[in-house]
Amino acid sequence: MGTKQTKSDLPQGTLDLLILKIVALGPVHGYSIAQRLQQVSRDVVQVPQGSLYPALHRLENRGLLAAEWTQTQTGRDAKFYRLTRKGKAQLEMETASWRRLAGAVGLILRMTGAGAE
Amino acid sequence: MTWWLRLWRRDRMEAELERELRFHEDQNVADLVARGVHPDEARRQARLALGGPEQVKEQCRDARGTRWVEDLLQDMQYAVRTLRRMPGFAAVAMLVLAVGIGATTLMFTVINSVLLRPLSYPEPERLLTLHGATEKLGEFWGFSNPDLADVKRETRWLAVGGWTYGGGTVSAPGEPEYVDGRQISADLLSVLGIPVLHGRTFRSDEDRPGAAAVAIISYGLWQRLYGGELGAIGQPLVFEGKPYTIVGIAPERFELAGEVDVYTPLGQNTTARMQNREARFIHVLARLRPGATIGQAQAELAVMARRLAKEYPSSNAGVEMRARPLQQELVGNVGSTLWLLLAAVGLVLLIACVNIASLLLARAASREREFAMRAALGASWSRLVRQCLTESTVLGVSGGALGALLAVVGVRPFVMMWPGSLPRGGEVRFDSSVWLFTLTVSLASSGLFGLAPALRIRMHNLERALRAGARSIAGPSRPLQSAYVIAEVALAVVLLVSAGMLGRTLLSLSSLNPGVNVHNVLTGHFALSPNALANPGRIRSAWQDVLDRAGRVPGVESVALADIIPMRVGENTLPYWTTSTPTPANQAPVALASTVTPDYLNVMGIPLRRGRFFDDHDRADSEPVLVIDDTLAQHAFGGDDAVGKRLWVPALGPVPLRIVGVVGHVRHWGLAGDDQSRVRDQMYYPFAQVPASLLRLFSSFMSVAVRTRIPPSNVEESLRRALRGAAGDQALYEVRTMEQLVAASLERQRFLLLLFGIFAAIALLLASVGIYGVLAYLTSQRVPEFGVRMALGATARDIMNLVLRQSASMIAVGVLIGAAAAWGAGLLLVRVVDGMRPTDPSTAAVMTSVLVAAAMLATVVPARRASRVDALESLRQD
Questions:
Q1: Contact across the interface for A30 and B19, Cβ inside 8 Å
Q2: CATH architecture assignment, domain A14-116
Q3: pLDDT at site B401
């Protein structure tokens, strides 16, 4: 299924982290999560919209997200997701571990870069 | 939301998913339109971006985590639909399983209730029974009262209580009736841990001679005589002509070796045998004290027995004392029979499973195209296997449910049918462990018959399977099919040969001469009027009166009294010597000693070999005489003529007894058990010569036996009436014909034969059906091959032989394996069943040939069908 035009493949498990981060900013529905992912990452991260919903539902089942049907400004019913306490804890934990990992990977890359010159 | 809640709200979840995705798409379209895209183009782009809606939904459903349940439900619905499309197969398979699982459940229920569940006493595992044992006699149940007293006094690890039989006539209040009674030591109930329902148990100061006469009565008698009034306590009860004061009511359903109505203190028994160390008539129950182990108790008993042997060599030399768990004692040899039957029903269930497996396998092969189609549509291999297993599980579990129903219905009749009475039979019931067992067996069976067909699903060669009419020349998986036939044949051989052996054993045992003429003989225990027991003279005349009255009953030919009736429970064994210088008691030979009146030989039809039997001249004041059976004569005197010789039997008095006659041996220990009995010698002594001091005691054992001219059951009522006595307080009870007693001695064998016969018949039927099914399938698979063969010149006869040969080789292998297993089963049966002979080749051959005949018959139909194949027609099929 390599036909989708993703500019960068998301590492395993990263999508969940990004979703949690976006939802942490306030209750939001699926479509605007997709929009924001695209906007904030300046189109670097392009999530196939089809895989967004299974991820949302999985997070909801794990109790990291809670969902509620409310009206949008335009007066349509939409399913709004918000972060649960458990989700918040998970987000903090994953953010910290992501930073550690990214920092470590960066260090290694810089080091090898210097060695190659 | 928990997974089952999500499952419950499945429809709502689906609707919400649909709405959520639609919202996403609409929002996207709106955005695109706002950016100036044409609405139709916007809709197209939005759809592309989201991806196929069904795939997205499917992934979302997976994310829900309830997928497996939904699949399971779907599979089950599909399985039920599939099974309903072939009601014949489903019904037969379910019925076969129901019988197999039902029988297994029933046997397990009985085993669980009788063997596995602890007794309903507090801390039942600490309860023991104590036994005496000598090398000569093996283990026996009794302790003598002095031995019991010594053990009680010296033991550190045990609380000990004793009891003995003591039934009698209750003459007031109410009508006189004979009730079963027990004499119990004061501490027996506390040893068992059973409190009385009302009142109190015996005090230790009441458990000695001369104390106030007190009694505990059963719940049943309390209801019968006193209407359950609490005022009954303190009331008098006239038992055996003596007034007792009721001090307690035993709890409902309390039993002590059977249902008992009256309990009296053992210590108030004043008969001479209470002081006799050789009179071992007391049953002993014991409870381990806190912290004690059975090993400590056994060691302690061994030490005490050795000390007693040293102190009282004449009575106790060589007598050991042993302890065994009470549960083991109560259940006795029932355990082996029950496990044997469970093994047998297990075999039947196994055959049933193999049978269904072979049918399912044949079906799986014919469903190859269906599976190929589904695989082509995207089903994974594991999904298809799961589907197959679900089908067999639906079959197995519904068969199991039906089987459980059969077990519930059948368990009462089974317990009633048990020869004699099943120990703890009243406690048989279903509990959670039974249902767990049934479920496990059902699931295991499902796996057993479902796994092989399911695992046969192949994912390659899809296109070949999909092509219509694709048939391979060699039928697929013939090894597996053959294995099924072989297994079925082998299992059926085991059951058939076992049933054959049991049948032969029963036949040969039934044809044994019991030693008595069993036709037209009626026997029954008899309780004299308590008034008659006042003194020896009155006892003698009362018994004479019984003989006279019984003799006048129409249809009665002759009457006799005896303390022991052949093949009935109850015996009295005494040591004897052929010289006046006795060796120690435990080394003397032992004989069954029975006291009888002169007509006993006529009544029982025992043949007189030499000399004479007793007559009216053998009286208390004449020379003591004895009649022995030919077994004793052979043992004691070899080839010499025993008549005129003397025997010393200390229990019957100090003077030697002169042997006046030799009679035939009677199979007292049952047609089956007599040969294996440790004691086989028999002697008779005249009732008239029983010492006056023992007359009262003996009167409580005596039975009346009559030979009749008409069917004995027709005499029973008039005999009962005639013997009621002047005061109407004498009773004839536990009346049996000799034919019933002989039949009862073979009940166990007959019962096992009946069940094994049924199992073997089922096995035979199932195996035949299975063989038919497998061969019909195999030959149908080989039709194209037969076509080719016939086109090449094979005759119908050749084809038929081909099929028959294939079947015969499978059956032969099955028979060989089965014969080996049957030989092993035979060894087991010999150990478990009295009178069983080792597997004899002729019986095994007969039973096996029955099976082979049935199996070959099941082969002939498919073989004939194969031989009628039209060569052209079959070749055109491909």
A1: no
A2: Orthogonal Bundle (1.10)
A3: 94
